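Technical note accompanying the year-one report. For the benefit of new consortium partners, we illustrate the data format agreed upon in the data management plan: each record pairs a sequence with a structure-token string. No post-processing was applied to the example shown here.
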Amino acid sequence: MTNAFDQELQDRLVRYAAIDSQSDENASGSPSTEIQFDMLNLLVEELQSIGAQDVKLTDYGTVLATVPGTAEGPTIGFLAHVDTAPQFNAAGVKPRVIKGWNGDDISYPDDPDLILSPAKSPYLATKVGDDIITASGLTLLGADDKAGVAVVMTLARHLIANPDIKRPTIRVAFTPDEEIGRGVDAKLPADLAVDFAYTLDGSDVGEIIYESFSADRAVVTVKGVSIHPGWAKEKMVNAAHLAAKIVQTLPQATMTPETTDAREGFLHVTDMNGGSSEMEIKLILRDFELDGLAAKGDLLRKTCEAVQASEPRAEITCEIYPQYRNMRYWLENDMTPVNLALEACKANGIAPISVPIRGGTDGSRLTELGVPTPNIFCGMQNVHGPLEWVSVQDMAKSTQVCLTLAQLAAKT
């Protein structure tokens, strides 16, 4: 079934996805990469062209703008992030649209061995007849979160073009570096200036998410004793061996991403770099509860201490840094924004889905900083890899829910 928003959403996502805006956790600054400005500056131009007010690119790399209200009500924010995940190639994205997908396996022109099959993707199997957007096989698509960007921009354009639609003041924001946990600057809550907000950064139609992981990151540094290997007997301490011992001592059959689901947390080794003289191990720690997160940190520290004790000549340090916290801790005290989104779904004949998200969004950090920000679906699927796809019609349903939400918030 076609929707008035379908073509605009398709055009926007194809345009945005072709722009490389990948973030880099090893870089400093905000944004972490200069290429994110290609998206940010484009959005400034597009917001100005549709008549948005107060359009601004902040010194921390976030685009802000106002959609004027036509009725009293709470000021509401809609956010999406412009960066794409660093886990897979994002250079040279070639988006393609499969109009009215017929239900067959989807192949990829730049990688003939790659197949997106409805047999392995039950959600895809429900999208026969939809317009499906994928990349060409060598890159991710970037629907995370450019599908969200397309939804927010389409919503803003539609509201500005239709001042007869009753809605309160709307604020839109496009952030950098969400994928590396640096999307919310400390200045953003005050600059956004809303009563509550929503991130457009979710998957299946109907998802209204108000519970996320709590998250920490960890850096373990192993310093050995370096000496020429020809004269190394009883003198060398190989940092690579000790780093491997730490990783092998950590849980393998449990408590890893590939062995957990539902409400189970994990401890995940993401990077190992260095050599025999010094090694660095990067990890992320995730749990829905703070005591579970703390327990994983304690396990990591004790593992490092045990390996340190086995080789006192080495120097092993373990630093753990907070990233974000479960938004539920704050939202459960005032479910107003959640209930409004649930009502908007139901008004569009969409059954709401509220399951804990095994990840986080900018909303996790914003909520912690005092801006209640649950997450609304925008259709992205199989993100962070070459099999990423999105249904145009799912994006249209997301846009309609946001539009209804704005109307419901207007005080008549």
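Partners are asked to follow this layout when depositing records. The longest strand covers residues 214-223.
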